[in-house]
Structures are given as C-alpha cells and as structure tokens.
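Long-time lurker. I teach an intro course on protein structure, and each term I like to show students one example going from raw sequence to a predicted 3D structure in token notation. This year I'd like something fresh instead of my usual example. Would anyone be willing to generate the tokens for the chain below so I can use it in lecture? Attribution to the forum is fine with me.
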Amino acid sequence: MHPVETLEILFLLMLANGTPIVAAKLLGSRYSYPVDGNICFLDGARLLGHSKTVRGIVLAILAAAAGAELIGLGWRLGALVGSAAMAGDLFSSFIKRRLGMPPSSQALILDQVPEALFPLIVCRDWLSLTLADMAVAIAVFFIGELVLSRLLFALGLRDRPY
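-- Reply from a regular --
Happy to contribute to a lecture. Here you go:
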C-alpha cells in the first residue's frame, strides 16, 4: 500500500469515528434513538449504552461514503468503511458493558483497535492490504485518535479528552 492510500483510509476511519461525536455535540438529544433500544443483556446491564445511537451510526456511514466519494475511492468503499468502523465501535461498547465500564469511559486499545481493525479487514482485498499495512494503519489510527480526541476536547466538541 502506498502512503497516499494509507492516508486515505485513515481519513475515512477518522471521519467515520468522529462524525457521531460532532453530531452529538451539534444535535444534542435530537434524533438520538439508542441502537440497543434500551435493552439489557443477561448481566442486567444495557446491551450497548445510551451513547450509541442510530443517528450516530447513520451519519458515520454517510460521512464516510461522502468522504470516500470526494477523494475518489467511491461511496461504496466509504459506506463499507463507515459500517465496519461502527460495527467495531459497537463491539467495543458491548465488551465494555460486560466489563462493567460506564458508557463513554476510556478503555485504551479496546476503544481504538476494533474501530480500525474491522474496516481494514473488510476492505483488505478491495485495497490489497497486507498484514503489515493493516498493522501500520492501526498504529497510526491509535495515535491519531488519541491526539484528535484531545483536540476535539480543546475545541469543546468532546466532554472528555479521550
């Protein structure tokens, strides 16, 4: 994979994962129906938590699709990246609830890796990714997400610096 392609996929990952945060800040509770429908799992805790909304998932997929189209990768790839990133995010939330962690709490690695790994796996053939490419992209995403999270906090778009 070329450096430009790596930057393109990282751009889509950041766009997909950042859109729900910005949407929550801009829209507040409007259109924020919880993905889990307020259902509790066998352990009595919410399946995913209140911060995972249909609005966030839909907007993340649309933003990634639009972003991919703008940079010449095609909206289908963008929608795939957005969908897989949100699947990774929901997976992380599910695991965090099972561990008894509150919604929006920080779980280093668990918060970053699935959100990057899932899209990279589903796009592996489409983008001819090697395991090395994927490892580099995950590492850069991990660091970038931590830095961007603090920037969004400083700009008032996040309630916490993580």
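Some talking points for your students: The chain has a mean pLDDT of 92. The chain has five helices and no strands.
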